[in-house]
Amino acid sequence: MDLAKLVDILKGGRVFIQMHNYPDPDAIASAFGLQKLLEKFGIKPVICYDGAAEKLTAITMLSNFSINIVHCHDITDMTESDKIVAIDAQKHNSNLTDLVGDEVACIDHHPTMFECDYQYKDVRIVGACASIIAEYYFANGIVPEGNVASALVYGIKMDTADFSRGVTQFDVDMYAKLFKYADNDLLDRMKLNTMEFADLKAYGSAIENIKVYDNVGFAFIPFECPDALIAMISDFILALDIIEFSVVYAVRGTGYKFSVRSEKPEMHAGKIISKALAGCGSGGGHARMAGGFAEGSKLASDGLVSEKVRSLFGKAIREYKAEYGV
Length: 326
Ligand SMILES: [Mn+2]
What we know:
By secondary structure, the protein is of the alpha/beta class. It is built from twelve helices and twelve strands. Manganese (II) ion binds at residues 26, 88, 109, 128-129, 159.
Protein backbone atom coordinates (compact mmCIF):
# COMPACT_ATOMS: atom_id res chain seq x y z
CA MET A 1 0.00 0.00 0.00
CA ASP A 2 1.44 3.34 -1.06
CA LEU A 3 -1.17 6.07 -1.09
CA ALA A 4 1.27 8.80 -2.19
CA LYS A 5 2.22 6.75 -5.26
CA LEU A 6 -1.43 6.09 -6.13
CA VAL A 7 -2.28 9.79 -5.80
CA ASP A 8 0.71 10.66 -7.99
CA ILE A 9 -0.43 8.29 -10.74
CA LEU A 10 -4.00 9.55 -10.66
CA LYS A 11 -3.30 13.30 -10.49
CA GLY A 12 -4.38 15.25 -13.58
CA GLY A 13 -6.96 14.07 -16.08
CA ARG A 14 -10.12 12.14 -15.38
CA VAL A 15 -10.27 9.21 -13.00
CA PHE A 16 -12.82 6.42 -12.88
CA ILE A 17 -13.12 3.85 -10.12
CA GLN A 18 -14.55 0.79 -11.83
CA MET A 19 -16.33 -1.84 -9.77
CA HIS A 20 -16.98 -5.33 -11.11
CA ASN A 21 -20.16 -5.88 -13.10
CA TYR A 22 -23.20 -6.39 -10.88
CA PRO A 23 -21.46 -4.64 -7.98
CA ASP A 24 -22.01 -6.02 -4.49
CA PRO A 25 -21.82 -4.21 -1.13
CA ASP A 26 -18.06 -4.77 -0.76
CA ALA A 27 -17.34 -3.35 -4.23
CA ILE A 28 -19.60 -0.35 -3.61
CA ALA A 29 -18.14 0.32 -0.13
CA SER A 30 -14.57 0.05 -1.44
CA ALA A 31 -15.19 2.31 -4.42
CA PHE A 32 -16.94 4.88 -2.22
CA GLY A 33 -14.20 4.79 0.44
CA LEU A 34 -11.50 5.25 -2.20
CA GLN A 35 -13.45 8.05 -3.93
CA LYS A 36 -13.81 10.03 -0.69
CA LEU A 37 -10.15 9.44 0.17
CA LEU A 38 -8.90 10.61 -3.24
CA GLU A 39 -11.10 13.71 -3.00
CA LYS A 40 -8.95 14.80 -0.06
CA PHE A 41 -6.04 14.98 -2.54
CA GLY A 42 -7.88 17.04 -5.16
CA ILE A 43 -8.82 14.04 -7.32
CA LYS A 44 -12.50 13.73 -8.19
CA PRO A 45 -13.11 10.16 -9.34
CA VAL A 46 -16.38 8.92 -10.82
CA ILE A 47 -17.51 5.49 -9.63
CA CYS A 48 -18.66 3.37 -12.56
CA TYR A 49 -19.79 -0.16 -13.36
CA ASP A 50 -21.28 -2.34 -16.07
CA GLY A 51 -24.12 -4.81 -15.61
CA ALA A 52 -26.63 -3.73 -13.02
CA ALA A 53 -26.75 -2.74 -9.38
CA GLU A 54 -30.15 -4.21 -9.09
CA LYS A 55 -29.87 -6.09 -5.81
CA LEU A 56 -31.88 -4.34 -3.16
CA THR A 57 -28.96 -4.32 -0.69
CA ALA A 58 -26.82 -2.50 -3.25
CA ILE A 59 -29.52 0.03 -4.07
CA THR A 60 -30.28 0.62 -0.37
CA MET A 61 -26.58 1.28 0.24
CA LEU A 62 -26.54 4.00 -2.40
CA SER A 63 -29.33 5.94 -0.73
CA ASN A 64 -28.41 5.20 2.92
CA PHE A 65 -24.77 6.19 2.55
CA SER A 66 -25.27 8.88 -0.17
CA ILE A 67 -23.18 7.16 -2.81
CA ASN A 68 -23.25 8.13 -6.49
CA ILE A 69 -22.43 5.51 -9.10
CA VAL A 70 -22.72 5.84 -12.87
CA HIS A 71 -23.46 3.10 -15.39
CA CYS A 72 -20.73 2.91 -18.06
CA HIS A 73 -23.40 3.27 -20.79
CA ASP A 74 -24.01 6.76 -19.45
CA ILE A 75 -20.33 7.68 -19.83
CA THR A 76 -20.11 8.34 -23.55
CA ASP A 77 -17.00 10.51 -23.54
CA MET A 78 -14.44 8.23 -21.88
CA THR A 79 -11.11 8.31 -23.75
CA GLU A 80 -7.96 6.19 -23.73
CA SER A 81 -6.18 8.76 -21.60
CA ASP A 82 -8.76 8.55 -18.82
CA LYS A 83 -7.48 6.57 -15.85
CA ILE A 84 -9.28 3.62 -14.34
CA VAL A 85 -8.79 2.08 -10.92
CA ALA A 86 -10.22 -1.45 -10.91
CA ILE A 87 -11.66 -2.18 -7.49
CA ASP A 88 -12.72 -5.52 -5.96
CA ALA A 89 -11.95 -6.94 -9.43
CA GLN A 90 -9.09 -7.33 -11.90
CA LYS A 91 -8.58 -6.60 -15.57
CA HIS A 92 -9.31 -9.43 -18.06
CA ASN A 93 -11.62 -11.20 -15.60
CA SER A 94 -15.03 -12.08 -16.97
CA ASN A 95 -16.75 -9.92 -14.34
CA LEU A 96 -14.99 -6.69 -15.37
CA THR A 97 -15.95 -5.14 -18.71
CA ASP A 98 -12.92 -3.70 -20.52
CA LEU A 99 -13.74 0.01 -20.84
CA VAL A 100 -12.00 2.52 -23.13
CA GLY A 101 -9.91 4.10 -20.35
CA ASP A 102 -6.51 2.92 -19.15
CA GLU A 103 -6.50 0.54 -16.16
CA VAL A 104 -3.57 2.13 -14.36
CA ALA A 105 -4.35 0.73 -10.93
CA CYS A 106 -5.98 -2.21 -9.24
CA ILE A 107 -6.99 -2.76 -5.62
CA ASP A 108 -8.54 -6.15 -4.97
CA HIS A 109 -8.73 -9.13 -2.62
CA HIS A 110 -9.23 -11.95 -5.13
CA PRO A 111 -6.47 -14.22 -6.44
CA THR A 112 -4.96 -12.98 -9.71
CA MET A 113 -6.05 -15.08 -12.70
CA PHE A 114 -4.43 -12.98 -15.44
CA GLU A 115 -1.23 -11.04 -14.75
CA CYS A 116 -1.54 -7.46 -15.90
CA ASP A 117 0.82 -4.47 -16.00
CA TYR A 118 -0.76 -1.90 -13.73
CA GLN A 119 1.23 1.12 -12.62
CA TYR A 120 -0.18 0.44 -9.18
CA LYS A 121 -1.32 -2.91 -7.86
CA ASP A 122 -2.48 -3.74 -4.35
CA VAL A 123 -3.94 -7.24 -4.26
CA ARG A 124 -4.13 -8.96 -0.91
CA ILE A 125 -6.04 -12.13 -0.11
CA VAL A 126 -8.21 -10.94 2.76
CA GLY A 127 -11.92 -11.23 3.54
CA ALA A 128 -13.05 -7.94 2.03
CA CYS A 129 -11.71 -5.29 -0.30
CA ALA A 130 -13.25 -2.73 2.07
CA SER A 131 -10.68 -3.76 4.72
CA ILE A 132 -7.87 -2.81 2.33
CA ILE A 133 -9.46 0.59 1.70
CA ALA A 134 -9.90 1.12 5.46
CA GLU A 135 -6.16 0.65 5.89
CA TYR A 136 -5.51 3.43 3.36
CA TYR A 137 -7.22 5.77 5.82
CA PHE A 138 -5.71 4.57 9.09
CA ALA A 139 -2.15 3.99 7.86
CA ASN A 140 -2.14 7.56 6.60
CA GLY A 141 -3.72 9.09 9.70
CA ILE A 142 -6.92 10.06 7.89
CA VAL A 143 -10.24 9.78 9.74
CA PRO A 144 -13.08 8.40 7.58
CA GLU A 145 -16.36 10.30 7.62
CA GLY A 146 -19.29 8.57 9.32
CA ASN A 147 -20.99 7.35 6.16
CA VAL A 148 -17.66 6.15 4.71
CA ALA A 149 -16.79 4.21 7.89
CA SER A 150 -20.33 2.74 7.96
CA ALA A 151 -20.20 1.70 4.32
CA LEU A 152 -16.79 0.04 4.84
CA VAL A 153 -18.08 -1.82 7.90
CA TYR A 154 -21.09 -2.98 5.90
CA GLY A 155 -18.85 -4.13 3.02
CA ILE A 156 -16.62 -6.12 5.38
CA LYS A 157 -19.59 -7.73 7.13
CA MET A 158 -21.32 -8.68 3.89
CA ASP A 159 -18.26 -10.09 2.11
CA THR A 160 -17.17 -12.13 5.13
CA ALA A 161 -20.74 -13.25 5.96
CA ASP A 162 -20.47 -11.56 9.38
CA PHE A 163 -16.85 -12.58 9.99
CA SER A 164 -17.39 -16.24 9.25
CA ARG A 165 -16.17 -16.64 5.66
CA GLY A 166 -12.64 -16.02 4.41
CA VAL A 167 -12.13 -13.58 7.27
CA THR A 168 -8.56 -12.71 8.34
CA GLN A 169 -7.09 -10.95 11.37
CA PHE A 170 -6.60 -7.95 9.09
CA ASP A 171 -10.37 -7.68 8.45
CA VAL A 172 -11.05 -7.84 12.18
CA ASP A 173 -8.38 -5.20 12.92
CA MET A 174 -9.82 -2.84 10.31
CA TYR A 175 -13.35 -3.42 11.62
CA ALA A 176 -12.15 -2.58 15.14
CA LYS A 177 -10.65 0.69 13.88
CA LEU A 178 -13.73 1.62 11.82
CA PHE A 179 -16.15 0.83 14.62
CA LYS A 180 -15.91 4.12 16.50
CA TYR A 181 -16.45 6.20 13.36
CA ALA A 182 -19.32 4.13 11.98
CA ASP A 183 -22.94 5.20 12.42
CA ASN A 184 -24.81 2.31 14.00
CA ASP A 185 -28.25 3.69 13.15
CA LEU A 186 -27.25 3.72 9.51
CA LEU A 187 -26.00 0.12 9.75
CA ASP A 188 -29.20 -0.94 11.53
CA ARG A 189 -31.23 0.51 8.69
CA MET A 190 -29.34 -1.75 6.26
CA LYS A 191 -30.88 -4.78 7.99
CA LEU A 192 -34.41 -3.76 6.98
CA ASN A 193 -35.92 -4.64 3.63
CA THR A 194 -33.11 -6.85 2.39
CA MET A 195 -35.17 -8.97 0.07
CA GLU A 196 -37.39 -8.04 -2.83
CA PHE A 197 -40.25 -10.02 -4.25
CA ALA A 198 -38.31 -11.00 -7.39
CA ASP A 199 -35.63 -12.62 -5.18
CA LEU A 200 -38.22 -15.06 -3.87
CA LYS A 201 -38.81 -16.30 -7.40
CA ALA A 202 -35.13 -17.16 -7.78
CA TYR A 203 -35.03 -18.87 -4.37
CA GLY A 204 -38.21 -20.72 -5.27
CA SER A 205 -36.92 -22.14 -8.53
CA ALA A 206 -33.57 -23.09 -7.00
CA ILE A 207 -35.31 -24.91 -4.14
CA GLU A 208 -37.63 -26.66 -6.57
CA ASN A 209 -34.88 -28.26 -8.66
CA ILE A 210 -32.13 -28.76 -6.07
CA LYS A 211 -30.33 -32.11 -6.44
CA VAL A 212 -27.81 -33.56 -4.04
CA TYR A 213 -25.06 -36.02 -4.99
CA ASP A 214 -22.46 -37.04 -2.38
CA ASN A 215 -22.92 -33.88 -0.29
CA VAL A 216 -22.69 -31.69 -3.39
CA GLY A 217 -25.83 -29.61 -4.02
CA PHE A 218 -26.78 -28.40 -7.49
CA ALA A 219 -29.49 -25.86 -8.25
CA PHE A 220 -30.46 -24.13 -11.47
CA ILE A 221 -32.24 -20.80 -11.86
CA PRO A 222 -33.83 -20.76 -15.33
CA PHE A 223 -33.80 -16.97 -15.77
CA GLU A 224 -31.39 -14.04 -15.54
CA CYS A 225 -30.52 -12.77 -12.10
CA PRO A 226 -27.76 -10.63 -10.62
CA ASP A 227 -24.51 -12.18 -9.39
CA ALA A 228 -25.21 -11.16 -5.80
CA LEU A 229 -28.52 -13.02 -5.78
CA ILE A 230 -27.00 -16.20 -7.27
CA ALA A 231 -24.30 -15.98 -4.59
CA MET A 232 -26.89 -15.58 -1.83
CA ILE A 233 -28.76 -18.63 -3.06
CA SER A 234 -25.50 -20.60 -3.15
CA ASP A 235 -24.91 -19.60 0.51
CA PHE A 236 -28.48 -20.55 1.34
CA ILE A 237 -28.13 -24.02 -0.18
CA LEU A 238 -24.79 -24.58 1.54
CA ALA A 239 -26.58 -24.02 4.86
CA LEU A 240 -28.47 -27.32 4.35
CA ASP A 241 -26.92 -29.88 6.71
CA ILE A 242 -26.29 -32.53 4.06
CA ILE A 243 -24.58 -30.14 1.65
CA GLU A 244 -20.86 -29.38 1.89
CA PHE A 245 -20.37 -27.94 -1.58
CA SER A 246 -22.94 -25.97 -3.54
CA VAL A 247 -23.13 -25.19 -7.23
CA VAL A 248 -25.82 -22.69 -8.25
CA TYR A 249 -26.11 -21.44 -11.81
CA ALA A 250 -28.45 -19.11 -13.65
CA VAL A 251 -29.10 -18.12 -17.23
CA ARG A 252 -26.87 -15.23 -18.32
CA GLY A 253 -27.07 -14.09 -21.95
CA THR A 254 -25.94 -16.96 -24.18
CA GLY A 255 -24.59 -18.97 -21.25
CA TYR A 256 -24.72 -19.58 -17.53
CA LYS A 257 -23.37 -17.72 -14.54
CA PHE A 258 -22.10 -19.90 -11.67
CA SER A 259 -21.67 -19.37 -7.97
CA VAL A 260 -19.90 -22.06 -5.94
CA ARG A 261 -19.50 -22.40 -2.18
CA SER A 262 -17.50 -24.87 -0.11
CA GLU A 263 -17.59 -25.41 3.63
CA LYS A 264 -14.59 -27.75 3.70
CA PRO A 265 -11.17 -26.11 3.52
CA GLU A 266 -9.82 -29.15 1.68
CA MET A 267 -12.35 -28.65 -1.14
CA HIS A 268 -11.09 -25.47 -2.79
CA ALA A 269 -14.10 -23.86 -4.54
CA GLY A 270 -11.94 -21.69 -6.83
CA LYS A 271 -9.71 -24.53 -8.01
CA ILE A 272 -12.63 -26.90 -8.51
CA ILE A 273 -14.72 -24.49 -10.60
CA SER A 274 -11.65 -23.55 -12.62
CA LYS A 275 -11.17 -27.25 -13.49
CA ALA A 276 -14.88 -27.87 -14.10
CA LEU A 277 -15.43 -24.98 -16.52
CA ALA A 278 -12.05 -25.08 -18.29
CA GLY A 279 -13.49 -26.46 -21.54
CA CYS A 280 -16.57 -24.28 -21.80
CA GLY A 281 -15.80 -21.02 -20.01
CA SER A 282 -13.82 -19.90 -17.00
CA GLY A 283 -14.06 -19.75 -13.26
CA GLY A 284 -12.02 -19.13 -10.14
CA GLY A 285 -11.95 -17.56 -6.71
CA HIS A 286 -11.32 -18.24 -3.09
CA ALA A 287 -11.25 -21.54 -1.17
CA ARG A 288 -14.77 -21.05 0.15
CA MET A 289 -16.43 -18.92 -2.54
CA ALA A 290 -15.95 -18.79 -6.26
CA GLY A 291 -17.73 -17.91 -9.46
CA GLY A 292 -17.59 -18.46 -13.18
CA PHE A 293 -19.29 -18.39 -16.54
CA ALA A 294 -19.90 -21.11 -19.14
CA GLU A 295 -20.89 -20.54 -22.74
CA GLY A 296 -24.16 -22.40 -23.39
CA SER A 297 -23.13 -23.85 -26.77
CA LYS A 298 -19.87 -25.19 -25.34
CA LEU A 299 -21.44 -26.50 -22.15
CA ALA A 300 -24.18 -28.65 -23.63
CA SER A 301 -25.14 -28.63 -27.29
CA ASP A 302 -27.83 -31.24 -26.67
CA GLY A 303 -29.69 -29.15 -24.12
CA LEU A 304 -28.91 -31.46 -21.21
CA VAL A 305 -27.42 -28.65 -19.18
CA SER A 306 -27.99 -29.92 -15.66
CA GLU A 307 -26.61 -33.39 -16.45
CA LYS A 308 -23.52 -31.80 -18.00
CA VAL A 309 -22.96 -29.47 -15.05
CA ARG A 310 -23.20 -32.36 -12.62
CA SER A 311 -20.78 -34.49 -14.58
CA LEU A 312 -18.26 -31.64 -15.04
CA PHE A 313 -18.23 -30.81 -11.34
CA GLY A 314 -18.27 -34.48 -10.33
CA LYS A 315 -15.20 -35.07 -12.50
CA ALA A 316 -13.45 -31.90 -11.31
CA ILE A 317 -14.01 -32.86 -7.66
CA ARG A 318 -12.69 -36.39 -8.23
CA GLU A 319 -9.63 -35.05 -10.04
CA TYR A 320 -9.05 -32.40 -7.41
CA LYS A 321 -9.27 -34.97 -4.60
CA ALA A 322 -6.84 -37.29 -6.38
CA GLU A 323 -4.43 -34.45 -7.08
CA TYR A 324 -4.42 -33.10 -3.51
CA GLY A 325 -4.88 -36.42 -1.76
CA VAL A 326 -8.06 -35.49 0.12
MN1 LIG B 1 -15.21 -8.32 -2.40
